[in-house]
């Protein structure tokens, strides 16, 4: 079954808020398999004032964060987890990250993440960000969810 999510459902699942919330909509989600989501990149993003004033480019670390947030949505939806102030989703590894084209204001970054492995609470994902069908970023991400007290 394919699930879609609007911003209201995303806000229920992710603890992130402006300016670090980087997923605007979920187009497709197959539990325990894959997610396809959207980050609309606008000139209003706070990092564009300094990266770079003469040619705004989305920082690679922000692209990876957007992919990680999509991965978190996939994990939370798959596990039926409702996040709260005591749930944190951490990066535990990023492998083979490659940046293949700049992402600029006006672009729509399509976030495609699929589960490669889940073991002992650690998830490994294959992740890509595309603009106009062209790969802008790809990486393998490892993440885990933890309760904090």
UniProtKB/TrEMBL annotation:
GO terms for cellular component: cytoplasm; membrane. Coiled coil: none annotated. The gene is fabZ. NCBIfam families: fabZ, PRK00006.1. It comes from Aquabacterium soli. One of its GO terms (molecular function) is (3R)-hydroxyacyl-[acyl-carrier-protein] dehydratase activity. Its EC number is 4.2.1.59. Involved in unsaturated fatty acids biosynthesis. Catalyzes the dehydration of short chain beta-hydroxyacyl-ACPs and long chain saturated and unsaturated beta-hydroxyacyl-ACPs. This is 3-hydroxyacyl-[acyl-carrier-protein] dehydratase FabZ. One of its GO terms (biological process) is fatty acid biosynthetic process. Keywords: Cytoplasm, Lipid A biosynthesis, Lipid biosynthesis, Lipid metabolism, Lyase. InterPro entries: FabA_FabZ, FabZ, HotDog_dom_sf. Signal peptide: none annotated. CDD domains: FabZ. SUPFAM superfamilies: Thioesterase/thiol ester dehydrase-isomerase (SSF54637). Gene3D superfamilies: Hotdog Thioesterase (3.10.129.10).
